[in-house]
Amino acid sequence: xxxxxxxxxxxxxxxxxxxxxxxxHAKYAIVSGFVAIAHGRSRGTEDVDIxxxxxxxxxxxxxxxxxxxxxxxxxxxSDPEELYSEYLSKNDSIRYVRKGKHIPEMEFKLSKDALxxxxxxxxxxxxxxGLDLYFSSIEMNIAFKxxxxxSDKDMEDAKHLRIVYxxxxxEHEIKKIKGMIRRLRLR
Length: 187
Hints:
Mean pLDDT: 94
Order of helices and strands: HEHEHEHEEHEEHHH
Strand order of the largest sheet: 1-2-5-4-3
Radius of gyration: 16 Å
Low-confidence stretches: 1-5
């Protein structure tokens, strides 16, 4: 089942426009709450989370300049060297918005460990969403929400994804990812 393209939301268009720029420079995956929203879950959010493969400062600068050229701005600063040295190299996220707008935001993170690398390695285009975007796998999203995040909102997201993908989930993969989360993020 696919969503119809004419039903695109502001978040859908924002994510698609941003990802088109990023994919010219690096591998990416959309993660977290927007994955459930793109699968029809009705809940509010003002941001989309994206993980990008680890980049050098020089490659990030080229990506940042392309993002700016295409109508976005970074909330923290416009200086790519500062963004890289003060945020990204320290595994902190940065946020982009469309120029002159406050929402939605793109929370932009570089891959920080083997778990993020695995998210990028197993990323998928998910036909049900109707969006030409790479998402982290459904199993990855469920594992993160159930094992690490655990807020009421995250547990409802995981429940929604389990319903949408009933009979199609790889529970062994979810268990494997939860083990990775315990080893890499909950130690």
